[in-house]
Fold this sequence. Notes:
Layout: E1 5-8, H1 18-33, E2 37-42, H2 52-64, E3 74-75, H3 80-92, E4 96-99, H4 103-115, E5 141-144, E6 151-156, E7 160-165, E8 173-175, H5 183-193, E9 198-202, H6 206-219, E10 225-229, E11 232-233, H7 249-254, H8 259-268, H9 281-287, E12 298-299, H10 302-315, H11 318-332, H12 338-346, H13 348-351, H14 358-364, H15 366-369, H16 377-380, H17 385-398, H18 406-419, H19 424-436, H20 444-451, H21 453-460, H22 463-466
Parallel strand pairs: 1-2, 2-3, 9-10, 11-12
Antiparallel strand pairs: 4-5, 5-8, 6-7
Helix pairs in contact: 1-9, 3-5, 5-6, 8-10, 11-14, 17-18, 17-19, 18-19
Amino acid sequence: MKKVATRFAPSPTGALHIGGVRTALFNWLYSKNQKGNFYLRIEDTDKERSKEKYKDQIIQSLKWLGINHDGEEYIQSKKISDHIKVANELLKNGYAYKCYCSNEEIEEQKKRAKQKKIPYVYDRKWRNKDEKEAPKDIKPVLRFKSKIEGTSLLKDLVQGNVEIENNSIEDFIILRNDCTPTYNLSVSVDDHQMNITHVIRGDDHKINTFKQIQIYEAMKWELPSFAHIPLIHTIEGKKLSKRDQASTLDDYSKIGIMPDALRNYLLRLGWSFKDKEIFTLEESIKYFNLEGIGKSPSKLDMSRILSINEHYIKNMDENDLFSQLVNYCQTFMNEIDRKKKEKIKNSLGILKNKAKTLEDIYNNCKYIVNDKVIFNKEDLALIDAKAKKIISEFHTEFKKINEINRENLEPIIQNLIKSNETNFKGVGQPLRIALTGSKFGPGIYDIIISLGKDDVEKRLTDKAISQN
Length: 468
């Protein structure tokens, strides 16, 4: 029995789409579950749109998610001569023919099909014509001689048996008139040469699969197994496109969605195992199978992604969480100095409270990160004469304590509540505004403890408060 081999074959023409990421994940998980290999093939034959930066971004994105390919990247453009060789072999063996139709003729055929409101199918004009009739001024394309009778059956590992009429597949082009190979030819040759055993991809490729099967059969190659995954839709039920917000991996890493959480979400997007929701990486590999993939499109639900991310934030080891937060800040925010990092690490338990993303944690710790308090103007307006008096009295008492802990702070706060005939909010809110710039944030004891004595004293004497 052949060793299982899967592949992910993106084109480096833009940022990696979330649908592509899920396809890569399913291929990777299936190969690892079957003790097989997972390959990355860069389909870069579109020279105008393919960019090295996109190739690098694809590789880094997959690594970020924990998807590592086996061996070197397979670069499609380096194999063009092999594709052309197979095309010529198909021509020699009677499975392809030269088509001399001009662009004008093809456009006219398309126009007539549009007027009749029917799909355009090439009329096979040159399928049985003698090349002696060929015009001298037209460079031919090479078309595959598709089957025109009977039906073809695809035994899809996800969709089940799919049958089509053979005459619905046109004689598709395999070599353009500049001798460059087309998608269906290149993919078939590459998959054969790479010994791919399972082609797992979006179900928008089903018609391509029928074309590629015919190439395999004509070349007498062993067919791989095919599995077509339903596409990802928006929450409104429309096909997700690159123009949609949160459609690329970068959209998620920028707001602080963690790789484990996103991988867990994508695993469950169209696949299920019993009623289990949260999977470790090891569990994902252990339980993944093609039988668990549904047949209907899945809807991308941002609220669910945030919910899973929040679960990971709450439950993961705090050292790992801190490490991810530091990396996130270095990449998307500002570098944090060592002293502040230590304060953030010691306060992570409170800073991660109610946070759904790393960005939320960063926003929660801004009062530690910023040297100077940045006041919300509306909140600063709440600092009236009574609030200033409370801040001043707290400062006087605070200077007397050496060790900052809840036990030492509580009596000071309680005395201020009593002497100023107010409640906990009446004391806590002015102090929170003075120390963080906002009436929203962690509890006042947590803020004071996380900042430390020097920072608290410095902030309580901020001129912005006294001049307000």
